Amino acid sequence: AKEINLTNPVTATTNRVAYDAEASNLRWFYHTFRSTANYYESCLVRDRLLALAKEQEQGREPVPAKVTEARELVVRWRRVLLDEKANASEALPVMAADMRLDFYYGFGGDSAPGKFHGADMIRKKLEILETEIDRFLPSLAKRCGVVLEPLGTDKP
């Protein structure tokens, strides 16, 4: 994706349509794979944090090692969520610029059109990420005994 972005300004006007058609697919694959990696990492970290929170809520004394682990996981999860927010924001114009990527129109053959445009789904995803970052993560951190530092000041 970085290499495609480097070639964008030097692509000749006569090749622009073909270039854009290929570049949008490559950019979309990049954003899709980045999103997939973020999703799986997010789930693993979230599930471990939920387990640590459950331990805290069962009335056990906070174990310093568990609080340290939770703090590291909170920082890691926030980084993953922020990366996914940036990724989704960067993917939005890619989706909006190429109707071939919009699954709303179906995939050919017998597949039926979707209910929502891809760009609308990405916007909804951004709203969900905001909620995860601004509400759920801080509340889960608190349940684990972790004080969430302001953005940019946390250390793993």
Would you write up a description of this structure?
With 156 residues, this protein is mainly alpha-helical. Helices cover 69% and strands 0% of the residues. It has four helices and no strands. The chain is elongated and about 70 Å long. The relative contact order is 0.13. The mean pLDDT is 87.
Order of helices and strands: HHHH
Radius of gyration: 20 Å
Overall, the morphology is elongated
Quaternary state reads single chain
Weakly predicted, low-confidence segments:
none
Q: Give the mean pLDDT.
A: 87
**Helical percent range?**
55-70%
In whole angstroms, the N-to-C terminal distance is 29 Å
Tally of extended strands? 0
Please work out how many helical segments DSSP would assign. Answer: 4
- Beta percentage is under 5%
Q: What summary fits the major beta sheet?
A: none
Q: What would you call the structural class?
A: mainly alpha
